[in-house]
């Protein structure tokens, strides 16, 4: 037996530990070189870990384990022969192909065993191997076999079930006066988010200032140009690109809002890399859109969509998560009317968007109903003075309420 150790690779300069979030191959599976065998969850992203050689996989770490860079994850027996290798087949006198005896024995050993996905489904459905008809290669149980078995089991246990035209959502029944508790280990991303939020609260002089934006002009802009915008660029014009463009313009006019503290110095930027907060099943991520000041609205929208799609499917790279000089978060999509967003260190400011709500406002001495949005700017008072924070919001407000001045660079 020749064993090759697979170790946690370096995934970034600042990352010293990862969590083995999920095995993609079962213990004892035959794997090929470069085939993904497990997933690592780092502070910033989820990464697939490929096999360095072909052979039989032997687990060393378990799902949920925290592993240092360089720790052994698994071993691969390179002398184990895959049943798919050409050398496993010999010619008979009748010119028909048959498996070598030792390979046939290995095939028999996998017969009746489920694939990793099938095993998970069987556990969740309380199915035994003998209850499933295996149709996979060499008698292995496939996911499709489990689905059929679940359907047969359900039909047998509920012969009089009546199907409704539209299935209602499953609602978990709560037991009256229940005292049950459950404990789940926090994901690495959630732990990292928690640590950074506490750090931002404890290590910055954070304050928040508020203003409100009349969204009438922006709504009218989108109404008049949305169809032509989609036809030309293949993407919808959203509020986020307009807010990002307005913020980028003001950030270059007010470099102190776009700065950060580094040791005893202030670092200023001649560009606006705006991080966009994106909610994912594993937590909030804030990948930046680089050089927003130089991009068109269509380019900003396209980049935001690309980042959001990657974030929600766990495909963001470490490079795409790095950087940012300012952040925008939109709690309005969840219905938030007002909030105080927390800083995204080492940045010195973050803008919070909120829900648009129609309410009466005074316009030229007349009471009118307008779609209004509260905006909040949380900032580090060590870098940004109170007057600067207020001026920043006022400038952004004016650009958004008069979008033509934004388009014309006025």
Question: Secondary-structure blueprint of this entry?
Answer:
Blueprint: E1 3-7, E2 17-23, E3 30-31, E4 36-41, E5 46-50, E6 55-59, E7 66-68, E8 72-77, E9 89-91, E10 97-99, H1 101-110, H2 116-125, H3 143-157, H4 188-203, E11 206-214, H5 216-233, H6 239-253, E12 260-262, E13 265-267, E14 274-276, E15 278-280, E16 283-285, E17 288-289, H7 297-312, H8 318-321, E18 326-330, E19 349-353, E20 357-363, E21 366-380, H9 386-401, H10 403-407
Parallel strand pairs: 14-18, 18-19
Antiparallel strand pairs: 1-8, 2-4, 2-7, 3-6, 4-5, 6-8, 9-10, 11-21, 12-13, 14-17, 15-16, 19-21, 20-21
Residue stretches low in confidence (pLDDT < 50, at least 5 long) are 82-109, 157-167
* Overall SS class: alpha+beta
**CATH homologous superfamily of the largest domain?**
Chloramphenicol acetyltransferase-like domain
Could you say what the CATH architecture of the largest domain is?
Answer: 2-Layer Sandwich
Per DSSP, the total helix count is: 10
Question: How big is the Rg?
Answer: 28 Å
| Shape category | elongated
Number of strands: 21
On the 0-100 scale, what is the average pLDDT?
Answer: 82
Give the assembly state of these chains: single chain
**Largest β sheet strand count, sense and barrel closure:** 7 strands, mixed
**Number of structural units classed as domains:** 3
User: Given this structure, which CATH class of the largest domain is correct?
Assistant: Alpha Beta
Alpha carbon gap, first and last residue? 73 Å
Helix content: 25-40%
CATH fold name of the largest domain: Chloramphenicol Acetyltransferase
Residue fraction in strands: 25-35%
């Amino acid at each position: 037996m020749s064993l090759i150790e697979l170790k946690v690779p370096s995934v970034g300069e600042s990352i010293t530990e990862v969590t083995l979030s999920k095995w993609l191959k079962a213990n004892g599976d035959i794997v090929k070189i470069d085939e993904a065998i497990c997933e690592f969850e780092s502070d910033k992203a989820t990464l697939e870990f490929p096999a360095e050689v072909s052979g039989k996989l032997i687990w060393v770490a378990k799902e949920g384990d925290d592993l240092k860079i360089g720790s052994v994850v698994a071993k691969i027996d390179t002398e184990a022969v895959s049943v798919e290798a050409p050398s496993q087949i010999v010619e008979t006198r009748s010119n028909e192909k048959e498996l070598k005896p030792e390979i046939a024995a290995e095939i028999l050993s996998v017969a009746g065993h489920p694939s990793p996905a099938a095993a998970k489904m069987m556990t969740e459905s309380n199915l035994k191997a003998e209850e499933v008809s295996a149709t996979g290669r060499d008698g292995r149980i496939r996911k499709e076999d489990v689905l059929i078995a679940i359907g047969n089991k359900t039909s047998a246990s509920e012969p009089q079930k009546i199907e409704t035209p539209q299935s209602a959502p499953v609602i978990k029944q709560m037991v009256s006066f229940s005292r049950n508790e459950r404990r789940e280990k926090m994901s690495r991303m959630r732990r990292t988010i928690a640590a950074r939020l506490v750090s931002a609260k404890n290590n910055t002089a954070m304050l928040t200032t508020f203003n409100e934006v009349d969204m009438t002009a922006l709504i009218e802009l989108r109404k008049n140009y949305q169809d032509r915008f989609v036809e030309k660029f293949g993407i919808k014009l959203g509020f986020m690109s307009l807010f990002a463009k307005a913020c980028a313009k003001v950030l270059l006019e007010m470099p102190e809002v776009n700065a950060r503290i580094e040791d005893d110095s202030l670092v200023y930027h001649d560009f606006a890399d705006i991080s966009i907060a994106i909610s994912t099943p594993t937590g909030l991520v804030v990948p930046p859109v680089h050089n927003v000041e130089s991009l068109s609205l269509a380019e900003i929208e396209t980049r935001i969509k690309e980042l959001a799609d990657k974030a929600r499917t766990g495909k963001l790279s470490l490079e795409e998560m790095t950087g940012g000089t300012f952040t925008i978060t939109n709690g309005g999509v969840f219905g938030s009317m007002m909030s105080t967003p927390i800083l995204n260190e080492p940045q010195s400011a973050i803008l919070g968007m909120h829900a648009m709500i129609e309410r009466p406002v005074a316009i030229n001495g007349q009471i009118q109903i307008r779609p209004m949005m509260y905006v909040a700017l949380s900032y580090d008072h060590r870098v940004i003075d109170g007057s600067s924070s207020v001026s920043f919001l006022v400038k952004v407000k004016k650009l958004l309420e008069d979008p033509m001045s934004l388009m014309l660079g006025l």
